[in-house]
Design goal:
Length: 298
């Protein structure tokens, strides 16, 4: 089933890669020599000619196999990657993820406000002379908020694995884009980190329907991964991009695949981490002890 080429998926990738490149639909349509309406239909999956796919792949500087989803899909921008996450989440029944410090989908609304500041301060000096980095962050934040809104509306099952080491750093440093900030800003960010951790503790104690959180105390993989279980297939995404302490939304190559071996290996990793993770009240008490030990005082 996973090997079937789905034109709706091709259209979704086309949209994600276009957004990732920061290309307006009107501009891409002009470059391709087609109407905006034709491009819109293509992004909806209404495309059948290989010549059109080849032209689109060339304009977006991606391989034709990646655009078609043959084998492994490589995604080189955070904007395109998180747009693909949004698309995949809209069709899934369950999400299993290991993200630092926690799945963005479970963060509070206050997290979005701080994240906007952090992503902008993480832009290297001189790297935004033309405003392209700021525009990319604006697009990324819009995608992230759309993901969270869709998740809350659809309420799919989610299993979020949390690494305790990530939360230690989160509480010690706060959500920061660099480490040369003023004491006032650092203290404010550490307070935000404390509040976000307390938000996770409340979920662990209240156990909302469909949300499972496990605190992992052993070393975890350096890269984040997420498994999307849909009605007729499962999809794996492996990402170097981070939205936590010292975020990275500039450099890296994410992978998306349904290859059986990759799926099996990561399903096994997730099952092992979940089996040994702290859960429920035990996990809540553990995070509370970390707050007491590492967090800034109120």
């Amino acid at each position: 089933m996973e090997n079937l080429i789905r034109f709706s998926d091709i259209g979704a990738r086309l949209r994600a890669y276009r957004i990732g490149k920061g290309i307006a639909p009107e501009l891409l349509a002009t470059r391709l020599g087609i109407s905006r309406a034709a491009l819109y239909r293509a992004e909806k999956g209404q495309i059948r000619k290989i010549e059109m796919l080849t032209s689109i792949a060339d304009e977006l500087d991606v391989s034709l196999p990646s655009l078609m989803g043959v084998g492994v899909e490589y995604v080189s921008t955070a904007t395109a990657f998180f747009e693909r996450m949004r698309q995949l989440e809209e069709q899934c029944r369950q999400v299993i993820g290991l993200f630092s410090p926690v799945s963005y989908l479970l963060t509070s609304d206050a997290y979005d406000e701080v994240l906007s500041e952090v992503l902008r301060e993480a832009i290297p000096d001189g790297a935004d002379a033309d405003g392209s980095s700021s525009r990319a962050i604006d697009a990324l934040l819009d995608i992230l908020k759309a993901r969270k809104e869709s998740f809350r509306e659809r309420n799919p099952l989610i299993v979020s694995l949390i690494a305790s080491a990530d939360f230690e750093r989160f509480l010690l440093h706060g959500l920061v884009g660099r480490h040369d900030l003023s004491r006032e800003i650092t203290d404010r960010r550490r307070l935000s980190a404390r509040q976000e951790t307390e938000h996770i503790v409340r979920m662990l104690r209240e156990q909302p329907m469909g949300i499972q959180i496990g605190v992992v105390r052993e070393p975890v993989p350096a890269t984040s991964f997420q498994i999307f279980r849909q009605v007729d297939r499962s999809i794996l995404a492996i990402s170097p991009f981070r939205l936590g302490e010292q975020p990275n939304v500039r450099l890296g190559v994410a992978l998306i695949t349904s290859a059986p071996e990759a799926m099996t290996l990561h399903e096994d990793i997730a099952a092992r981490l979940w089996r040994d993770a702290l859960k429920g009240m035990e996990a809540a008490e553990y995070l509370e002890s970390m707050i007491e030990k590492y967090a800034i005082a109120r």
